[in-house]
């Protein structure tokens, strides 16, 4: 209806959001999904009825010939458009709605680089390179950089580059390829205009492996120049061949636990990272990765042994990671996780803030900061961090929904929490504790108990006493821990 009110005229995204959603917080991605659904139903694949006007908005161009068979009512095409718009609005009313993206600096998405290496050298190298470029670009205050997790959902996608850019809300897309022959790495990169698919810049780099990150720094600076912004002068990171290998192990571990959040995945990660620390003792990646793994293991009861000794080792490993690489945002992220688990809440928040400073595009670091702020009762600040994640990581994974839903439960907005939780495509079994607490808050006793059974099926030895031991001293907001433990007990967790 908003488009039909101004046929042939450009209607901006902001106007559509105001007219259709009437103050509800959504992103340009939500608008694009509505437009795509309208085009699908109207069979407007060539975008002639609903046109996209790059960087301005959308325009409805009604067909020149309109049937007059039904003079007493509106044309069928307009009825179809009206019905489809209403359907889309209703669907989005139940979906997870994200904050409006305000005008600002250019938005860049770095896609996973294709790997053209011989079979024996194919693996995680390309992802490591793409991740490093994403991190380096995030240091430029002139840009907003889409999180790697959202960008990487388009690996091997057949979509046009403009469609990918539209879905990510990106002005520019960087794509490229890697080829490693065991000695040297050849990297090609291409910067593309997200609206027109014009090739703005391209280059090729052929370097020894130990100069890989230096080449990436050059790439990031060239991209900055290509979009006409002032380049920030920063030191070029250097990495030894051993450090690169340790990074690949850390990337593999992170990917494994994200794909399958389970005890089995964690134990594999712990074994691999122990080997990484033995083989590459001067790399930060092994210690920080192992500190994170041990923290997860203790939190979910997946590692056995003297808990105080494990807590101490976690702390030593996290500190070692920061000492080895004080500019590595994941080292500070790991340190924050460990400090939080060891009940040093203020220290944890400081570490998380440093991680965000080092890599503003990291949804992991911001999510951890949001959790820590919520634990001490700063829920408004925590939700601001979640809003930032929703901007930089428009296709974020389950952990953001999990964190936001728990914060909403904490504030008493339990119906909203349930909507947020169920908006995620999937959740690990560990998240069922949060779902149980949400249903208990709403009064859905049967669903709350079913959710708790889902958690206990994967964690049969977990009890309220163990839960209390984990969160005491960490969840310091007034009444929060008691309310949570009461919900755990009421929904069926053994005492």
UniProtKB/TrEMBL annotation:
The keyword Kinase does not apply. InterPro entries: OmpR/PhoB-type_DNA-bd, Sig_transdc_resp-reg_C-effctor, TPR-like_helical_dom_sf, TPR_rpt, WH-like_DNA-bd_sf. Pfam families: TPR_16, Trans_reg_C. This is Adenylate cyclase. TPR repeats lie at residues 329-362. GO terms for molecular function: DNA binding. The keyword Membrane does not apply. Residues 1-62 form the OmpR/PhoB-type domain. Residues 1-62 bind DNA. SMART domains: Trans_reg_C. Keywords: DNA-binding, TPR repeat. PROSITE patterns: OMPR_PHOB (PS51755), TPR (PS50005). One of its GO terms (biological process) is phosphorelay signal transduction system.
């Amino acid at each position: 209806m908003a488009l039909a009110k101004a046929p042939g005229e450009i209607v901006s995204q902001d106007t559509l959001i105001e007219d259709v959603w009437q103050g509800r917080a959504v992103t340009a991605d939500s608008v694009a999904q509505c437009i795509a659904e309208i085009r699908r139903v109207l069979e407007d694949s060539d975008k002639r009825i609903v046109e996209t006007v790059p960087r301005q908005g959308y325009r409805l161009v009604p067909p020149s010939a309109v049937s007059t068979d039904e003079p007493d009512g509106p044309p069928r095409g307009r009825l179809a458009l009206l019905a489809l718009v209403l359907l889309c609005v209703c669907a989005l009313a139940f979906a997870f709605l994200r904050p409006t993206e305000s005008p600002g600096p250019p938005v860049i998405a770095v896609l996973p680089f294709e790997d053209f290496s011989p079979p024996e050298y194919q693996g995680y190298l390309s992802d490591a390179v793409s991740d490093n470029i994403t991190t380096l670009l995030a240091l430029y205050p002139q840009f907003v950089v889409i999180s790697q997790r959202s960008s990487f959902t388009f690996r091997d996608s057949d979509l046009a580059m403009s469609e990918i850019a539209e879905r990510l809300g990106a002005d520019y897309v960087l794509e490229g390829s890697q080829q490693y022959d065991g000695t040297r790495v050849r990297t090609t990169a291409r910067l593309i205009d997200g609206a027109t698919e014009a090739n703005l810049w391209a280059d090729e780099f052929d370097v020894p492996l130990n100069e890989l990150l230096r080449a990436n720094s050059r790439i990031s600076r060239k991209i900055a120049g290509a979009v006409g912004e002032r380049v920030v002068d920063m030191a070029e990171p250097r990495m030894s061949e051993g450090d690169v290998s340790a990074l690949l192990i850390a990337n593999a571990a992170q990917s494994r636990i994200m794909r399958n959040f389970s005890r089995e995945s964690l134990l594999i990660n712990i074994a691999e990272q122990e080997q990484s620390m033995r083989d590459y003792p001067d790399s930060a990646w092994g210690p920080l990765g192992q500190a994170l793994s041990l923290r997860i293991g203790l939190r979910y009861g997946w590692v056995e042994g003297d808990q105080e000794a494990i807590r101490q080792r976690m702390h030593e490993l996290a500190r070692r990671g920061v000492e080895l690489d004080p500019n590595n945002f994941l080292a500070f992220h790991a340190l924050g996780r460990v400090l939080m688990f060891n009940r040093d809440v203020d220290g944890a928040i400081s570490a998380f803030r440093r991680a965000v400073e080092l890599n503003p595009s990291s949804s992991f670091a911001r999510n951890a900061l949001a959790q820590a702020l919520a634990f001490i009762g700063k829920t408004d600040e925590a939700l601001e961090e979640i809003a930032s994640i929703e901007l930089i990581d428009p296709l974020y994974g389950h952990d953001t929904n999990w964190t936001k839903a728990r914060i909403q439960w904490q504030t008493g907005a339990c119906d909203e929490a349930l909507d947020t939780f169920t908006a995620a495509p999937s959740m690990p079994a560990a998240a069922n504790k949060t779902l149980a607490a949400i249903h208990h808050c709403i009064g859905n006793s049967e669903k709350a108990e079913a959710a708790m059974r889902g958690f206990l099926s994967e964690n049969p030895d977990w009890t309220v006493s163990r839960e209390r031991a984990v969160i005491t001293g960490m969840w310091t907001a007034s009444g929060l821990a008691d309310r949570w433990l009461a919900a755990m007990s009421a929904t069926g967790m053994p005492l």
